[in-house]
Write a structure and sequence with these properties.
The complex is a heterodimer of chains A (389) and B (159). Chain A has 389 residues and is of the alpha/beta class. Chain A has helices spanning 24-39, 87-101, 120-125, 139-155, 159-175, 188-192, 221-227, 260-271, 277-280, 291-300, 309-314, 341-354, and strands spanning 5-12, 48-52, 80-81, 106-114, 196-198, 201-202, 211-220, 232-241, 283-285, 368-375, 379-386. Chain A has a domain at 5-120 and 209-227: Thiolase/Chalcone synthase (Peroxisomal Thiolase, Chain A, domain 1), CATH 3.40.47.10. In chain A, a hairpin with a 3-residue loop joins strand 10 and strand 11. Chain B is of the alpha+beta class and 159 residues long. Chain B has one domain. Chain B has helices at residues 2-12, 33-46; strands at residues 49-54, 59-61, 77-81, 84-93, 106-113, 120-124, 137-142, 153-158. Chain B is globular and about 70 Å long. Classes of the chains: A alpha/beta (389), B alpha+beta (159). The structure holds zinc ion (ZN).
């Protein structure tokens, strides 16, 4: 094991579909400034800067190279990482590895996406090989429609269950000052009345395209204790990946392959002595681009038995006041600045551990939290956070 | 923090902001490789769908690949699989997009051919939408003029 690493600063922008008032670097700077303010640190106190986003989603190559000055990275070491949808978690892992190695005492990690600059679906359809995936790319909506269909048929979940998840997400988003979609939904009927994008996926069943950024400051044990009274320790990070179909499918829409989520969770639990996930872990922020995906992830992360994900929402277990809250922030279905999205999962989980989530702080005391990330070809990153190690 | 930033946007409301539109065009040239090409040649010349088999793991990969993902063996054993298989999942695209090879509506499906261990991403046609279902049995329909492309399988049709 490496040295201990803590999150000592957390910052994010608010989220919208469109920000014409700021350039990409200026937008990212807002999150960096917020993280530095939270940690009461100055840019000179940060030793290295790591950035992540979805290359080409901004309609350009290397959108990070021009923001060195704005993110406080002028003449500093650092790297950019891109692992697809998981990239915002991979950048946290990258910073974690560097600080754990002892090479740096402090690191700033940043996830960002300014989707109003580009065409995300066009970029996703370019993420398949022209040999096997020629023309068979559906973008994200088609992929998650396949997942929803398989989940529905395999488990017996109904559209009403997906609607309950959407309602839960909106309740959280409305309490989260940084969330994008705050719809004020009152009933599942409102969700069930929204039109289909691709059956069985409705407009309200799917995430928006958001612009935003999230920044975290990581520090070694001795620095962390000087910087803050409330360090949030990164207990572990596990990455697992595969590409089952050679055509850029998201995860395994067929339910026949080995899921990277199962493997990642099992590895994380085994390494950290977790035998009963929903008891040993107090809450989770998971990467769910659709409500259907959330129910499926409950199962793959072993929050419940197989084919019973929908029962968790039916029983209210994953509500903010429930026994095992999931995505009290409103989650990805309310806010999805893709490259920043997994960083936000870690940030929101860390705020819960600190007890600083404000109006969307969960009822249960959170000493341990889990953040997950999902990416294009069945890529998974899971992060475990603790109040004390 | 959030309040502070929102204030700043409020102030910008009446200000003119310049926005520039553009487009990037990036050509690419991909090889199917020797293994992938043999797979495509068998379809083009003989209407045969071939996979590569890992005898250690007892897995047949279709489309053929050169390395077993479970044990990292170099695969060199070719086996013919059936042109019939089972639909594992599907979705329907109703909106046209420049990268699609045919006009919408397009049924995209993942088909596991009999004798293959893996699903294969392709399209379906000749389907009565009402009867479209996971588990449906399908067969490959080959294109009349075959050129050495995955689209030499024109689509999969119900059995
Ligand atoms: Zn093998």
């Amino acid at each position: 094991m490496g040295n201990r690493v803590a999150i000592v600063g957390i910052g994010q922008t608010y989220h919208k579909s469109n920000r014409k008032d700021v350039t990409q670097p200026e937008m990212v700077a807002e999150a960096v400034r917020a993280a530095l303010t939270d940690a009461q640190m100055k840019p000179k106190d940060v030793e290295a800067v790591f950035t992540s986003n979805m290359e080409t989603f901004e309609g350009m190559y290397l959108p990070d190279h021009m923001m060195v000055d704005e993110v406080g990275a002028f003449m500093k070491p650092g790297l950019k990482v891109n692992t697809g949808g998981t990239t915002g978690a991979s950048v946290v892992e990258e910073g974690f590895h560097f600080v754990a190695s002892g090479l740096f005492d402090t690191a700033l990690v940043i996830g960002f996406e300014k989707q109003d600059c580009g065409d995300t679906t066009a970029a996703i359809t370019a993420a398949v090989t022209p040999v096997w995936g020629k023309g068979v790319a559906t973008g994200a909506i088609g992929e998650f429609a396949k997942q929803a269909l398989t989940y529905m048929q395999k488990t017996g979940a109904k559209e009403e269950h997906a609607a309950m998840i959407r309602l839960k997400a909106d309740k959280g988003a409305c309490k989260n000052p940084y969330a994008h979609l705050k719809l004020g939904l009152k009933s599942i009927e409102e969700v069930l009345n929204s039109g289909y994008l691709v059956w069985p996926l409705r407009l309200l069943d799917f995430c928006p395209q958001s612009v935003g950024a999230c920044a975290l400051i990581l520090a070694s044990e001795h620095k962390a204790k000087k910087i803050t009274k409330k360090p949030v320790w990164i207990a572990d990070v596990v990455t697992v990946h595969q590409e089952p179909f050679r055509a850029g499918s998201f995860g395994d829409p067929t339910g026949t392959e080995e899921y990277s989520q199962d493997i990642a969770a099992e590895r994380l639990y085994k390494r950290n002595g977790i035998t009963n996930p929903t008891k040993d872990i107090c809450m989770a922020e998971i990467y769910e681009p659709s409500n259907w995906e959330e129910m499926s992830h409950y199962e793959h992360y072993h929050f419940c038995e197989k084919n019973e994900g929908w029962k968790m929402v039916e029983k209210g277990i994953t509500e903010m006041e429930g026994a095992f809250p999931v995505n009290p922030s409103g989650g990805v279905i309310a806010t999805n600045p893709i490259g920043a999205t997994p960083t936000i999962r870690v940030a929101e989980a860390a705020l819960q551990v600190r007890g600083d989530a404000g109006e969307h702080q969960v009822t249960r005391d959170v000493h341990t939290a889990m953040a997950t990330a999902l990416g294009g070809p069945n890529w998974t990153v899971v992060t475990l956070l603790k109040r004390s190690l | 923090m959030a309040e502070l930033m929102q204030d700043r946007v409020e102030k910008l409301k009446d200000l003119d902001v310049f926005v520039y539109h553009g487009k990037i065009y990036i050509p690419n040239t991909y090889t199917a490789g020797a293994v992938g090409s043999r797979f495509l040649i068998e379809i083009r010349d003989n209407k045969k769908i071939m996979g590569t088999r890992c005898s250690t793991c007892d897995v047949v990969y279709v489309p053929a690949r050169s390395v077993c993902k479970h044990c990292f063996s170099q695969l060199d054993k070719w086996v013919e699989v059936s042109d019939k298989g089972t639909l594992l999942t599907y979705t329907v695209a109703g909106q046209s997009n420049g990268v699609q090879p045919v006009d919408p509506p397009i049924i995209y499906g993942i088909v596991q051919l009999d004798g293959a261990s893996t699903g294969m991403v392709h399209m379906l046609s000749e389907v009565d939408f009402e009867k479209l279902a996971i588990g449906m049995r399908v067969r490959a329909v080959f294109a009349e003029k075959r050129v050495g492309s995955i689209l030499d399988i024109k689509y999969f049709a119900p059995l």
